[in-house]
Design brief:
The chain is mainly alpha-helical. The protein is built from 34 helices and 3 strands. Helix 3 crosses helix 6, helix 7 runs antiparallel to helix 8 and helix 13 packs parallel to helix 15.
Length: about 675
């Protein structure tokens, strides 16, 4: 039996007794009524008299009374409204009745009937877009039934196959436009199964690759789109723009959209880039812009510690060329993508103030953008930069705008902004809101076959684990760490997920939060390893966060010999990158060192500067902890009433956050 036929119509899953009762009841109907019911069943649960007349040849004068009798027998019902203008709509009262009636129709008739349903819908429905998936189902079913019929004409089977393939591709495109991930992937996979020629395979694989991108199946998107490009070369080498477009789409997965558990090899990706550039030629075109944009991201994605800074700077200039070409072509979406890569060239060096100038250009394009992914990414990356600079309230507003604009039309894309909205709430001390964001992410992110939650990155789960660790709940912290998938590397002897080898070499992704968690558990060597800043002058986009975590690690460890040099390094990084929160961490570290050295006067001065910094940026937890440090200093200086007031101010925050150790410390100080 045919899988698509049986999946929707077979009564084999019904108990034999129920099937027999329904079949007997239908068999007892007058011949005209039985025929009407069987033909109507081909249409599905809902049907229309005009369609039944088209398929059965029953005259209207006979059909209307037959429908009335079926209504009287409670087999069908007349619907109060119809999806098709000028046609009364009916529906089977019970899905089981429709399935049994369909099963009683001879299989040879079904293929012609399904093909007829598709033709009638196409000719009758005012807005054909609404019925893409239904058309695809009927054409596909007609083809499978005809292919299984040994007496069917080969040319008829082939015509049905081609039509079904075209409808599946249309339906997959429509599903992608509505961000219905599962439907887009299912329809495209069915198109791949129907494809026979290299050209057809290329078209179907392109649809499938784009569906995988929609669901953040990065690994599959890369492989599928790469295969689509090679199939296009084999089928139509003269389609140079099509080949270039497919190469660009494939390469945008590792360079822009991500969702990959492992990057392709640099040589494999370079082969696709070379093919794309050769196909695009030297004239201005959308394909050329996209491939130049890919080139602009190349050192960041496929480079390594030995990559010279000149390559980063050269890549940034390529991004600027791509943006200029996109604007000449009047394509704001492509200009936005290129500017994203230009910004990458600055923040790779940790130069956030330079980055923000490009971010401003990109946000100015938003009113003209059509691709919701570009809209969302523009706000997400603006929030990314604001967060790293320590402008947490601004990061929250920007990320919220990214979520608001895209959550209804492109929910998987909105996850990127949701990530930064969550982290901004964490930094601002709104931990209840932060954890609520994670619950929203669980609902939005499509579950994949490997159980990963696509599109929501590892950072928020690492921050959640740290929050639960601070609350004295290591079991909940470990549960959060299990959400951080895929996990490519686990450090030897480690009982929690770590970063992969490359991420261990750069202070990015989840490393700062993971390091602070490990330090709270007393695993100082592991914590330090996660936040080592590379010796190369790039890959520094998270250097500020790494230095913040390092300041905390040194203080928890009591490694005071390292404190002065670390604080000095933090101040240099804050100066070069325009980082607003980092000086507070440096001041707090120095204040703690002074207190440990028995100099509460110097400690007070440093800690007061730190508290002022954290208050200015809105870092509620950091401010509360610094106030507790200050309270201890004030006790040492003999000002116990001031110490109690300082500890009480801190207590209101740490109690609300539920951080166990700090709450006990506040009570003790009060």
């Amino acid at each position: 039996s045919d899988v698509h036929d049986d999946a929707r119509h077979s009564s084999g899953r019904l108990p034999d007794t129920v099937q027999a009762v329904l079949a007997a009841r239908i068999d007892r109907l007058p011949a005209l009524d039985k025929r009407t019911l069987q033909i109507a069943a081909v249409c599905g649960r809902a049907f229309w008299p005009g369609l039944v007349r088209e398929l059965s040849g029953i005259d209207e004068s006979a059909l209307d009374p037959a429908l009335g009798r079926l209504v009287d027998r409670s087999l069908i019902v007349a619907q109060p409204a119809s999806r098709i203008s000028g046609e009364r709509e009916y529906a089977f009262r019970h899905a089981l009745t429709q399935e049994v009636a369909y099963a009683m129709l001879p299989r040879r008739e079904r293929a012609r009937a399904h093909a007829g349903v598709s033709r009638w819908l196409e000719a009758t429905v005012d807005d054909r877009r609404r019925e893409f998936e239904l058309l695809a189902h009927h054409d596909e079913t007609a083809h499978h039934l005809a292919a299984a019929d040994p007496e069917a004409e080969p040319h008829t089977v082939e015509a049905l196959r081609i039509r079904a393939l075209e409808e599946l591709l249309e339906a997959a495109s429509d599903a992608r436009s509505r961000s219905t991930v599962d439907a887009a992937q299912d329809l495209a996979q069915r198109a791949v199964q129907l494809a026979r020629t290299d050209r057809e395979r290329s078209l179907a694989l392109e649809a499938l690759g784009e569906a995988y991108l929609l669901g953040f199946w990065g690994d599959r998107a890369w492989e599928t789109l790469r295969e689509a490009a090679l199939a296009r070369v084999a089928s139509d080498p003269a389609d140079r723009r099509g080949i270039a477009r497919l190469c660009a789409e494939a390469l945008e997965t590792p360079t822009r959209w991500g969702g990959m558990s492992a990057l392709p090899s640099g040589s494999e990706a370079a082969d696709v880039l070379r093919l794309g550039l050769e196909s695009a030629g030297e004239d201005d075109s959308e394909e050329a812009v996209r491939l130049l944009t890919v080139r602009s991201m190349w050192p960041r994605v496929f480079g390594g510690p030995s990559t010279p800074v000149s390559d980063i700077e050269g890549a940034r200039r390529i991004g600027e060329q791509a943006a200029a070409m996109a604007l000449r072509l009047e394509s704001p979406d492509l200009a936005s993508a290129a500017l994203d890569c230009v910004a990458n060239g600055w923040y790779s060096l940790g130069l956030y103030e330079r980055t923000e100038a490009v971010i401003t250009q990109r946000l100015a394009l938003v009113p003209r953008l059509r691709d919701p992914r570009e809209v969302e990414d523009a706000f997400a990356m603006a929030a990314w930069v604001a967060f790293h600079r320590g402008r947490y309230r601004e990061a929250l507003d920007l990320a919220d705008e990214g979520v608001r604009r895209t959550i209804e039309i492109a929910p998987t894309a909105a996850l990127h902004s949701l990530e930064w909205r969550a982290l901004a709430r964490f930094a601002l001390g709104d931990w209840a809101g932060f954890l609520a964001e994670l619950d929203l992410a669980r609902r939005l992110a499509p579950r994949r076959e490997d159980a990963t939650r696509a599109g929501f990155r590892r950072r928020p789960w690492a921050a959640a684990a740290l929050a639960h660790e601070l609350r004295g709940d290591p079991v909940a912290a470990d549960a959060d760490l299990e959400e951080m998938v895929p996990v490519a590397y686990v450090p030897p002897g480690s009982d929690i997920p770590g970063e992969d080898v490359r991420d261990l070499a750069e202070p990015g992704s989840d490393a700062p939060w993971m390091a602070r968690l490990l330090a709270r558990r007393g695993r100082f060597a592991d914590a330090r390893a996660l936040v080592q800043i590379p010796s190369v002058p790039w890959w520094r986009d998270s250097a500020g966060l790494a230095l913040e975590a390092s300041c905390e690690i040194v203080a928890l460890e009591g490694a005071w010999d390292d404190a002065a040099g670390l604080a000095q390094e933090a101040r240099r990084e804050a100066e070069r990158g325009g980082l607003l929160a980092l000086p507070g961490h440096a001041d707090r570290l120095e204040g703690r060192r002074s207190m440990a050295a028995g100099d509460p006067g110097a400690a007070r001065s440093s800690l007061e500067r730190a508290a002022a910094t954290f208050e200015a940026v809105g870092a509620a937890f950091e401010l509360a902890v610094t106030r507790l440090d200050l309270a201890e200093v004030l006790v040492a200086l003999g000002d116990r009433s001031a110490a109690a007031r300082m500890a009480a101010a801190a207590r209101s925050v740490v109690d609300e956050l539920g951080v166990a150790e700090e709450s006990q410390r506040a009570r003790r100080l009060i």
